[in-house]
Specification:
This protein is an alpha+beta fold. Helix content is 14%, strand content 32%. The strands form four sheets. Strands 4, 5, 6, 7, 9, 10, 11 and 12 form an eight-stranded antiparallel sheet that branches. Strands 1-2 form a two-stranded antiparallel sheet. The protein has a two-stranded parallel ribbon with strand order 3-8. A hairpin with a 5-residue loop joins strand 1 and strand 2.
Length: 229
Amino acid sequence: MPVRRLALAVTTAGILLGAVGCSGTSTDEGPDRAKGGDGTATSSARPAAECAKAAFVWSDVKRERKLTGVSELVEHDGKGELSVLVEGFTQQYPAGATGVFKGLKAEQAINALGKHLGISEEAPLGQPGERTGTESVQYEAGETEAGRYFGWHDIELITATFTHPCADGKGFVKSWPQITQFVLRCEDRIVWNDKLTNLTEAEARIAHQAAVRVCPKGSAATGEPREKA
């Protein structure tokens, strides 16, 4: 099971919030099966050793953040611990590959895509059979500013098409390199390139989706996200 980056969020007042517990494992079979019923397609007549050395050629690579879970609104008076439970959605994003060929496994196609994209081996792409999008994550924090809090988690879904000298036709990979998790206040405007929250623009827009679902209408967090001035 790959190790994924655990993102930590802070309020604009600089109060650090941690996340505890995250899992993306599953016993499900994974995504659509390939031609042979075992995730492989018929290989060419090339020797297995030659196929193992041949390179994947990638095209149509797409990367898109997906919101995978949100919490209910948590009213916090600033006293005692803050606890936020993020419930995962029922929609899942299974990792896997179709169109791979005999002699190589689906995870080799996924790992080749990760290498092509320069994704760290310390937080590799999800492997065949892994699913994400249904996890429940409990956040606990000590002294925090009073306010209305919400939490969420999301993934960066990556899809790509490949060809290979030993594969018949084109193959397809779907995976994700990490699960990111945050907690913010509804009273705070969502921004990116902010040293306190460390959100990227893509993450900030996902945060906005979560805020619109949870925070009262008119809250600062439901306003259009912006870059830190």
